[in-house]
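sorry to bug you again but im stuck and you know this stuff better than me. what follows is a protein written twice so to speak, once as letters and once as structure tokens for the fold. mainly i need to know what kind of three dimensional shape the backbone takes. anything you notice is useful, everything is just below:
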Amino acid sequence: MAGGRVDFSGTVVGMMPSPKDVVATQRQLSYERIAGSYEPVTRVTDAAALDLDLFDISGQLALMTNDGFAVAQAIYQKGGNSMSIARIVLYEPLPANIPKGSPVEGTDASGGAALGTMYYDAPLGSTELSVLYTPSDIQAQHLSCRVGGLPSQSQMLDGCFAPTGSVTVEGYGTFQYVYNTVVDNTNGRTIQGLSTSAQQKMYHCSACPYPEYQKFYEYYGAFDYANEIVLAALAGNSTSFSRGNLAMASYSRISRSEVAKKAMSSMHVFMYVIRQMEHAISGCREDDPDAVHAWDEAVAYYAGSLEGSDGSGTGVFPYSLADKRCANFQTCGVDGNATAGTSRINDEVMKEFTIGAFHIMEGRCESVLASKTSVARRMTVPLVQSALRYVHRRSALGVTHEKTLAQSAIFAASVVPFVHACSEEDAQIIYVHSGTQSADPFYGEVKAAFERNYDCMGITCEDVGGLFDEFAGGYFQGAEPCRGKADDAEQPPTAAASSSAPVSSAPTPAPTGKAAPATTAPTKSPFFIDTSFAGGRNETLSPTTEPSAAPYNKDDGDYIDFSAGNRPGHYGASRRFAIALVVLTMSYFI
């Protein structure tokens, strides 16, 4: 036990419990699993729901209009689905200081109870209170007040404090207030904030700089490199980094939307997962009970809420990318040799998250550091796979449209700083062949440049796998897995060496997350999406056709049926709009 502080509920206590003490208390509660395999010991539904911001941003970008891009930027900068805060104005000045964390209760717009805690200290004489809404333990109902930068049809106002009324602050009395429910309900957590806070939280903190973040700062020369990339993409500008610039002035909206969306997940969220793990390690060393909560939040950011508590959903955060890429590189399943189911990377990452949480509970802080390092290294694998996949599309498959160039560029930008920390020469090779200005990429050069640095990056040839041609039943020629120190198993044949009959191997069932189907063969054409429920059209496009703002990403070989789907967390009149957004946003889900 240590000195007095504010506990999870915001109550000031005389002695600070250790992480183990907190876990013993929290074990009385039951929290939903994250992606089917990780059981948090603290409430992190609100953090996990940040992925709904990216979901809504994707829907607005898919409209391919000026207004859509403007709303997308508003959600990016103002949030809407996570960490909702009401700023209410009091009729009379406060008679005493009210500390941050004090419980607050009032009435919501529908007549029910609205609960929260003080977000800031409120000094004597203040006429304003900032109240952080208390989220639910149920992920699908995590917040019933969602405004921020969301468009009016996506806002949820019934659960917000009523426009006028009274609030009771526990231990301090009842106060009359007034406020504007649309203007004065803001969000303390935004995707933009993950990047703009990085200088303070990842470079200048007491345990900083964090090694992974430092590599990106040293490569790009900007603390908020991820934010600069997104703002440049949304505006159609170029970045002005010391190296690794992205030139997007001539890009179409669909290409710029690809850069923006993928940067948010693969750069903003990716690095913040690492930040939360580092924060947990610092807390563990200081015997801070918030350490386990920080670790739980790292898992929440990694998976998001859309994966579902059983792992059967399809999300937009790093967990989802790993599952998508394992199908392309035959690295799904516990053995990493299947093309369906949960990726081996996700299986290993979630196991390491669980091990790390246990070490925090036991106060084994250096072991937590080992778990963090293992997670961070594995998280880079889907980024390497993605960078390889899109440069291969351009180089070996001859896909020429601009959208694929944009996808190639942003995934390379998301991982090349790690390569640069190992070899500046190889990082430059990858940038030259994958960047926004690359005209004649050579896949073999990029593949070799990555592979020369796997040992330095802490990953293996087996982790990455090879680009698998599912229809031919083998790897694409020249895209086979490399052979490293840990890769001595016999590899499947290349597509060129396979027989004319496609080979379909049975995938290994995944122990957690998405269940693998009986075979790896798709049940429908990979260039098909069922949009009949929305009055849409079914179509097949050639690889060189410039894709429209269609409700799917046809060139990525994904079949997605949303005939019975709707956006989690939207209710009533907003449901139809939400379904329409799902249909329009499938250019993200690759």
